Amino acid sequence: MRSPFTNPIRSLSGRLALAVASAVAIALLLLTGLSTWREVERYAAAKREALRMTAQILAASAAQATAQGDEAAAQSTLRAIAHGQALVYAAVERSEGEILAEQGIGLRLSDDIDLDRGTVSPLDLMTTRTLRVSVPILENARPIGRVVLVSDNRDLAERITEVGLTAALAGLLALALGLAVSMGLQRSVTRPLAALARTMDGIRLGHDYSRRAEAGSGEVGALAESFNDLLRAVNERDQAIARHNAGLEEEIRLRTHDLIEAKQSADEANAAKSIFLATMSHEIRTPMNGILVMAELLASADLPPRQQRYAKVIARSGQSLLAIINDILDFAKVEAGRLEVERIPLSPRDVADTVVTLFAERAASAGLDLAAQIDGDVPRTLLGDPVRLGQVLGNFVSNALKFTAAGHVLVRMEMEREASGPVLRIAVSDTGIGIPQDRLAGIFTAFTQADQSIARRFGGTGLGLSIAERLIGAMGGRVGVESRVGEGSTFWARIPVEGAEGAEAPVRRAPAVPAAIRFGAVAAATQAALAADLLAAGFHPVPSGDGHWIVEASELLASGRRPEGAGRVIALVPIGDTSGSGLMRAGLADAMLRRPLAQAEWRPLLATLAQGAPLAVEAPEADAGAAAALPSFAGARVLIADDSAVNREVAAEALGRFGIHDIVCVEDGGAAVEAAAAGRFDLVLMDGSMPVLDGFSAAVAIRAREARDGTARVPIVALTAHVVGDGAESWQAAGMDGMLAKPFTLAQLGALLARHLSAAEGDRETVVPEAPPLAASDDALLDEPTIANLEELGDQDFLERILRLYLAQAPQTLLDLEDALARADAPAAARAAHGLKSMSANIGAVQVKDRAGAIERAARDGRLDGNPDGNLDGLADAASGLDDLLARTVSALRLRFGVPVDESGEEGGDDATVCRLAVG
Question: What is the spatial distance between Cα 472 and Cα 468, in angstroms, rounded to a whole number?
Fold first, then answer.
């Protein structure tokens, strides 16, 4: 690279020499101009004095001639002196201006400079050629004329030239001296700088940071020393980097090893979590089966309207609980922020009814009034997730009840319009303690409450509102809160409305129906909800006078008579209170309306009141009527593959509810493959965990045979309790057509059958028979909900068949378990324990199920009692008490089902659904 000091224009030495030369030149010009100016001024003064002196001499000589008018004498005087002083003109003038005598050019110049006027500009002197002076001619001190002399200034140019030459010589001498000084500065400044630049350039090109610049004196020396310090710092840095690089490879190896170990630990922890979630999912969903099936069958039975409502609330609540449990168990999905919501038609009124009914007992026990007010313009249905929306509303109501000591909680649903479109606003207002303004911003933060003492006073984790916010956010909406300390709070959610079905037809009062409505001692929230609908229908609440009455049942009972001047009387009866029927039998009330208000009861009752029609004893359910109807698939042929005889029988009985009686059952996956090859089936229900060949491998084998033989594809559905973990997704890889999770409801089974089968012509629906009354059992050996589910599912013949199958299968399975433990065969022990657990769960043998489940988990882990070495000796101790437990459980089942000890009769009658066991 070329050094910057090699360019004479840009180098420091060149710029220094140019500066010196420029300074000398400027000084020379200024000095020359000033000298010339001064010289011209001196010339003018000297010329003036010389000309005046000559003129004065001439005036004295010509005074007599001028006085006498002697032209010749005057002329003679002029000739005597007119040849000096570079005169070009001389004249003697009389006082009246007449020229007496003159000598010279004879022509007066108009631009002569008059030196008599005082100061003359040097510039004017250099631009003119003649100078003029005049003096008076005196006689006896009296002016009688004047002498005029004109001279040229040719000698001025000579004098200016002389000054210029002198200045130029002085300038040259000054320039030489300046350049000499510049050369000296170059040697003391620019040369060390050039040497430093060359050193820098060499270090840059050669990367040799061991070189040092030559240090001098003064500022340049200090600069060189600073550069040397920089080089020393660079050397130290390079040495430190070299030392670090020497150990970096080993450090990277160690850290990589640590990261690999940490990743392996995290993977193992994640796998353990997945296994735990899958196991817990299987265990929790098993008792849920009894709750859901029992509630569904009870709700579909021919019950009185009130009991039917209770059963439907249980069924809806069970579905909500199961959905929430599914999300809790699927924890990985929540952690990853992939919380999904459904988009199916939902009824906002049904959601409100379910929530207020669920919290009715809690509100009543706290002495609070709970009500729901639904505006008339709220759509009948809209697209959304009913379970999630109910969960959000339930969180709001639960929170309001928790922090309200007295007063009421009011649920309000109304339509609003925003820039993005219509939205449904759901608000829950209370008269509770309120929230300070500075706490409102973080109220929806997880594990946050308005005051840390709240957790101690009221309980809770502060997680419910955070979950509600996330759920509403997943629906595309938003949440908020308004509150004043000591007055209460309003939690609200706004949800975009899509796929809305029109609002219900408005209720209008007939002209003949009196418009006056009076309220008794009705609580504020309930009265507000009732009044809003009554006003919209054309009624007018009045404080006094005649009219229809809405009054609390307790108020009627206390008075013992109808209100005075009452038209129709509607009694508000708390849920679970049986006093309403007595009021109507006594003629004190014309109809009952349960409290908290349910839209499904109140709206039909309001319509009846508005039309003046007779009031029903109880407001009918919106969907009350005959028992729920199920589609019939008579003629369909179904293969059930399950290693548990109890599970096979339960599945067969459930299929029988849909008119399916041609059912073949097999015990393992291998038999399922053989049965599918031997005959044509319309549907295969395949358990996942079976001996010989598991259900997923059996499905793969069936699909391979279909592809090889070119036969039609038979629908295969996985029937399993594994809803999380690997088992939950294995059915897709196996080529199955779907998965039905246990526990399942009749509606879920019906939907599955509808997807894969065609309903029988001429027999589209069958009615689920009424369930027999439930008998209570205090025996801890049995699970009452499961027992009740079995009793609801089938008749006595079905129960006897189930018990006989259990008696045949359970002891043998227990022997297989003990044999596997004796042989230390962990897989065989796990399979046997799983079979015993599954069949015991389905028949309600809860203690046997729990003991077998514990053995299964330990066997799958290959350890028990903390033994990690795969030794199964401890499992034998855990199974040692199963013989006695199984015997006591069988005795309890016999007693519960009413089957004698020597029962050996044949299976049920002609209408029973028979699960024929396929033989290879």
Answer: 6
Q: Where are the alpha helices (DSSP H) in 207-347?
A: 218-300, 305-329, 331-335
Q: Residue 464 and residue 440: Cα distance in Å, rounded?
A: 15
Are the C-beta atoms of residues 385 and 455 closer than 8 Å to each other? no
Q: What is the pLDDT of residues 501-547, one digit of tens each?
A: 888 888 999 998 999 999 988 999 999 999 999 999 999 999 888 88
Question: For residue range 663-715, what is the model confidence (pLDDT) as tens digits?
Answer: 999 989 999 999 999 888 999 998 887 888 888 999 999 999 999 998 889 99
- Closest C-alpha among 621, 737, 632, 647 to residue 684: 737
DSSP secondary structure code for residue 643 in this structure:
S
Higher pLDDT, 284 or 663: 663
Reference 650, options 791, 512, 454; nearest CA is 791
- Among residues 769, 369, 859, 833, which one has the least CA distance to residue 574? 369
Cα 228 to Cα 210: distance, rounded to the nearest angstrom: 9
pLDDT band at 320 (very low <50, low <70, confident <90, very high): low
SS3 718: strand
Structure tokens at 632: 């019939």
Distance CA 362, CA 350 (A): 20
Cβ–Cβ under 8 Å, residues 512 and 538: no
Q: Give the Cα separation of 515 and 509 in Å (integer).
A: 8
Confidence (pLDDT) at 53: 85
Backbone angles phi, psi at 903, to 5 degrees: -60, 125
Is residue 806 within 8 A of residue 893, CB to CB? The reply is: yes
CA atoms within 13 A on the CB side of 96: 3
Contact 212, 54 (CB under 8 A): no
Count CB atoms within 10 A of the CB of residue 33.
Answer: 12
Buried b (16+ CB within 10 A) or exposed e, 250-267: eeeeeeeeeeeeeeeeee
User: What is the distance between the alpha carbons of residues 254 and 247, in angstroms, rounded to a whole number?
Assistant: 11
Tell me the three state secondary structure of residue 498.
coil
Residue 686: closest CA among 695, 674, 673: 695
Task: State which amino acid sits at residue 334.
Answer: V
Q: How far apart are alpha carbons 214 and 389 in whole angstroms?
A: 83
Distances (CA, A) of 761 to 309, 488, 632, 754, 755: 33, 60, 9, 14, 16
**If residue 471 lies in a helix (H) or strand (E), which one and from where to where?**
helix 464-474
CB neighbours of 418 closer than 8 A, spacing ≥ 6? 494
Alpha-carbon distance of 448 to 466, in angstroms, equals: 9
Judge if the upstream peptide bond of residue 596 is cis by omega within 30 degrees of 0: yes
| pLDDT tens for each residue of 370-418 | 999 999 899 999 999 888 898 889 889 988 998 898 999 999 999 999 8
Main-chain phi, psi angles of 486, to 5 degrees: 85, -10
The span from the CA of 404 to the CA of 363, in Å, is: 10
538 Ramachandran zone, left/alpha/beta (phi>0; psi -120 to 50): left
Q: If DSSP codes are grouped into helix, strand and coil, which group holds residue 796?
A: helix
> How many angstroms separate the CA atoms of 802 and 844, rounded?
11
Residue 795 predicted with pLDDT over 60:
yes
- Count of beta carbons in the 10 Å neighbourhood of residue 128: 16
Token output for 663? 């059912």
Q: Are 787 and 293 in contact (CB under 8 A)?
A: no
Query: 814, 815, 786: which is closest to 802 by C-alpha?
Result: 786
- Give the gyration radius of the chain's Cα atoms: 59
Q: Which amino acid is at 396?
A: F
Sheet containing strand 683-686, strands side by side: 738-741, 716-720, 683-686, 637-641, 662-666, 915-917
Query: What does the CA dihedral 117, 118, 119, 123 come to, rounded to 10 degrees?
Result: 40
CB 693 within 8 A of CB 670: yes
Amino acid at 661: H
* 3-state SS, residue 918: coil
| Distance in angstroms (rounded) separating the CA atoms of residues 702 and 694 | 12
Could you give the C-alpha distances from 298 to 308, 621, 651, 790, 793, in angstroms and in order?
A: 8, 15, 19, 12, 10
